[in-house]
Design brief:
Helices cover about 30% and strands about 25% of the residues. By secondary structure, the chain is of the alpha+beta class. The protein has a nine-stranded antiparallel β-sheet. Strands 6-7 form a two-stranded antiparallel ribbon. Strands 9-10 form a two-stranded antiparallel sheet.
């Protein structure tokens, strides 16, 4: 997923723009990476230090609930087969994942954790899986084996009653985190904001009085977090939206001369192999939706991804793909706005 570069300062004044207010930036570490929140404090009475503490409390709550990398999270204990006392967030995200599985026709499968683990793109170290192992995993995991609602009894949830599934919310967790932070900012009166936790939620105007703009990476293979050239720059219209890029140019490995990327098709159990290099999705609904649909597009490939974006009025998209002649091409949906040079 695309990361925006951030300043080293943990708390930084951005600008004072006349009567537009006082913009500040809050930055820190969360979910194995960094986060940056830029906001206009005009009309906000909550101290900036309290805002920062509240944001980090939200992100910590998500980490201790949904992170498969945090061995003490509710998700990790559940995936290890232990009985847990699920909180509201755990139940909410399970329902979200189940609904996305249904609406995507199985393209998004949050119970395909064992398959992701087998390829080395999940929460466990693993070897290169054989065809027989993949076939066995496909037979024994997936949302199709789980109920629409988790069977909580006396406040407890026993994974054994569900066949000990292993859940993986990587396709929506960061987008969901953006939504939760944005909801808090709205609750204290913030109108102009950009929340960047690897994925983005933005609303209103930037310190210069213009809509927020977000650079889209040129999807050239590079598994590091080094700065890469921009392919284009999305420009907002001052309206609330989530924007997320998914691509196979960072998380991958080469084996026997073949590239194996982190986008896996749950229907086949194998990493995808097609011409779509990256998918950027803008959602007027939520960052979680943008996050999920960006992955959805990457699983489908260019023709079907275009259809998914065009059929949903809440979505816009930018698809970067390799043409037959080997050149890199970009497709934009009609409402996807780019900054003019």
């Amino acid at each position: 997923m695309r990361k925006l570069a951030i300043l080293a300062a943990m708390l930084l004044m951005l600008s004072c723009a006349g009567g537009r207010g006082r913009y500040v930036q809050v930055s820190g570490y969360a979910q194995g990476g960094t986060y940056t929140v830029k906001l206009n404090t005009k009309g906000v009475t909550v101290p900036v230090e309290t805002i920062k503490d509240s944001i980090e409390a939200i992100l910590n709550g998500i980490d201790t609930t949904l992170s498969g990398y945090n061995k003490n999270s509710l998700l990790s204990h559940f995936n290890a087969g232990e009985r847990i006392r699920p909180n509201a967030m755990f139940l909410e995200v399970y329902q979200m994942g189940y609904d996305l599985w249904k609406s995507s026709g199985g393209v998004l499968d949050f119970a395909a954790g064992p398959i992701f683990d087998a390829w080395g793109f999940g929460f466990r170290n693993s070897e290169f899986p054989s065809d027989q192992e993949i076939a066995a995993l496909r037979e024994n995991c997936g949302m199709r084996l789980l109920p629409p609602e988790l069977p909580v009894c006396d406040g407890m949830l026993d994974p054994a009653e569900l066949g000990n599934p292993r859940l993986n919310y990587n396709a929506i967790a960061q987008g969901y985190s953006c939504d939760k932070v944005a909801a808090y900012l709205y609750s204290i009166g913030v109108k102009d904001m950009l929340v960047d936790i690897g994925e983005i939620w933005c609303d209103g105007l930037n310190p210069g009085g213009k809509p927020w703009a977000v650079g889209i990476d040129r999807p050239e293979d590079n598994p590091t977090e080094e700065k890469r050239p921009m392919e284009t720059v999305w420009s907002g219209e001052g309206k609330p939206c989530g924007i997320v890029t998914s691509g196979n140019y960072r998380k991958f490995y080469i084996r026997d001369g073949r590239k194996y990327a982190h986008t896996i098709n749950p229907a086949t159990g194998y990493p995808v192999s097609h011409s779509l290099l990256s998918a950027t999705v803008v959602s007027s609904v939520s960052s979680a939706q943008a996050d999920a649909y960006a992955t959805w597009c990457m699983v489908l490939g260019i023709p079907s991804a275009r259809e998914v974006i065009l059929e949903d009025p809440t979505l816009e998209g930018c698809l970067i793909y390799e043409a037959v002649d080997g050149s890199m091409q970009t497709w934009l949906s009609p409402g996807f706005t780019v900054r003019k040079k």
